[in-house]
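go over whats below:
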Amino acid sequence: MIRRLDSGQLLAVSEAWRALWLSRLVVWGAGIFAFLKLGGASVAEVPPVAQTSNFGFTLLTRPAVAYDSANYLTIARDGYSYLDLTAFYPLYPALISGVGTIVRSDIFAGIGLSIASFAVALYLLHRLVQLELGDAHARTTVLVMAFFPTALFFSAVYTEGLFLALSVGAFYSARRGWWARAAVLAMLASATRNTGVLLLLPLVAMYLHGPRENPAPGPRIRPDFAWLALVPLGLAAFFVYLHFHTGDAFTSFTATKEIWGRETEPLAGLWQGAEAAARSLAQIAAPSSDSLPTDTYENTGDLSNPLVLAQVNLLDFAFLAFAIVACAGALRRLPLAYGLYAAAGIVVPLSAPAPYEPLMSMPRYLAVLFPLHIWLALQLGRGRRLEAALVAMGALLALLAAEFANYNWVA
């Protein structure tokens, strides 16, 4: 028997759907327009796994396939066929492989999985914020999330959409007191990205301090607390696989260092990012024709152009500044678990800076830290302030989507 949705669920479906299609219209519209206007990347720049001679197919998929997309598609097709691929975690490409056998296209499978996951994430986020702050703030939050400037990755062949759905689902389940479900979703998140294991911190905080519905009387620690031991198992399972596949359980960390030059230095990205931003201002004020050595580290791409790198470093630092303010706000205005999760999600990339772009991918990493978006929604409220913010975010979202569609570096 199919259970009918209540009014709160219907509202969440309606508002999540509106945020989804409006924001994806911006992403696809800007991406396709830029591809047609600028001609897109040369064939040499597009990885073979993402190449096709069908122009219509290329046009339709350009806003969703670039850079790391090729790695996920390669894993889906060939598995971990070379060591660099171990930097990418297995759940998302495994799902692409499974769905791809049905729809007969791994690219369509990846895009479909990302969009479906993002739709679920927006619905669950609306439901979560309904519980915490009410309907009005839930509506604002899903709009802020959908139009965040790097929200283009939620529909790309990247892990962002799936990871967001699993992490919000874990929070929502914990908020409702469904600890087995929360633990399983967090475990799957840790098999999607290594930062999924960070969900253990807010889930423990929520178990011990709330908020949650109908807390059981009796001891603070009860048998259902043991479910949270599942959270790291997704990550641990991948390490076990790597041990038998490569002989080194921690090959993924070695690959991360070799590909992007990331070194573990606690919070070093904070001052390195600030220094890079200061240098970038000077570079823009007095441009130089020097380029980075091509053999410095892999994946420099258009970042070998010093002016492009300067712009990227400034953008990264601007996103970090927003993150620090928003995290402080989340710690002050939201339940403890939300602020802890946001803080942990910022500290981890800050502790693994990359050469030349210390805050590499920070704008993309912030997209999935939903407590930051909840806080921003609280600040914007309703009315003209919200409308102006959405217009500004939508414009930057369109710009970044256009860059992404033409294989220019975006987070």
